[in-house]
Amino acid sequence: MRLLHRIMSLALLATPLLLRAQSPPACPVIAIDSAGMMRDVFRLADDSMRGRRVGTPEGTQARDFIATRFDALGLDRVPPGRVQPFTTTRRGGAAITGFNVVGTVTGTRFPDQYMVISAHFDHIGAVGPGAQCRASGADSICNGADDNASGTAGLLAMAALFIRAKPQHTLVFVAFDAEESGDVGSSAWVASAPIPLHQVLIDVNMDMVGRNVKNQLFAAGPTKYPQLRPLAEATIGCAKITVTIGHDGPGAPGGNDDWTNQSDQAAFHAAGIPFVYFGEEDHPDYHRATDHADRLMPAFYAAAVRAVGDFIRRFDQAPVPRR
Description:
Layout: H1 2-22, H2 34-44, H3 57-73, E1 83-89, E2 95-105, E3 110-120, H4 145-164, E4 169-176, H5 184-191, E5 200-206, E6 216-220, H6 229-238, E7 242-245, H7 265-270, E8 275-279, H8 298-317
Parallel strand pairs: 3-4, 3-5, 5-8, 6-7
Antiparallel strand pairs: 1-2, 2-4, 6-8
Helix pairs in contact: 2-4, 3-4, 6-8
C-alpha cells in the first residue's frame, strides 16, 4: 500500500509539470528567414529597379519579382488572379495601369474568415518630370529601401512563415501598388475586393519597418479600435524592440500626427475594417535618394517583422470580432 501511495503521489506531482509543458509559450518563437528578407530588400531597392514607380517598366519588374515569389511559396490565388490590375492617373491626367499582387493561405478552421496582410511595393522612382524623388548629389534614384522594400520583404517573410505554420483563418497577402500616388492600389482593391469585405476581420499593414535609431516601432490602430489593444499589448510584451501603440488618435503617443490615412490601411478603415499599421517614424532619408538598403538596421528589422508575425498569430488564435 505504501508503494502504491508513493507512485500515485509522484504521478500527481508530475501532472502539473506535464500540463505546463503542453501549454503554449507566452512568447512564441516567430521563425523568419532574416537573411533571405535582407536579400529581398536589396533586390527590390537595387538601382536597376529605379525606385519602382507605378506605371514604369521597373515597377513591373518589382511586381513580377513578388508574383514569382508568391508562386514559389505556393500561395493560392483568388480571382482575377495573382496580378490584379487597376487604373490610375499621373499628375497631368495621363492614365496608367498599376498592379496589386495577391496570394492566400487557406485557414484550417475558418477558411471563410479573412485576415489581410499588406505592404506597398511601389516607391517614387527617380528624379525626372513629375517625380517626387529628391536627389542627393549625383545620386538621382530614390531606391525606397525602407519605404517600402522593407515592408514588402517582410510580407514575403510572413507568407513563408504561415505557409509552414498553417493559420486558422485565411490569410490574404497583398502587395499594393501606387501607395505613393495616394493609396490608389489599396483603394481600388477594397472597392472591388475579390473576397467578401464583411468577412475580413482585420488589415495588418507594414510600411517602413527597417530602421529606427531609437529601436522603436509604432503600432497604429488600437486607439481607434480598442478591442485590439490586449493583443497588441501582448505582442509588445514579447517584442525585442520597443513597440508603442500610437500615431492613431488624440491622446496617443505621436500627438496629432495620426497615421490612419497615411498608408494602405486607410482604405480598410474607410470600409469599417479594423487595422493595425506597423511602421517607424520618418528618418532623414525619407523620400530621398539616400534611402539605401545598406542603411537598414538588420537586427531592428528582423525584430520588427517578428513582432508583426507575433501579432498576426495572436489574432489568428484569438480573433476579435468586428464592432
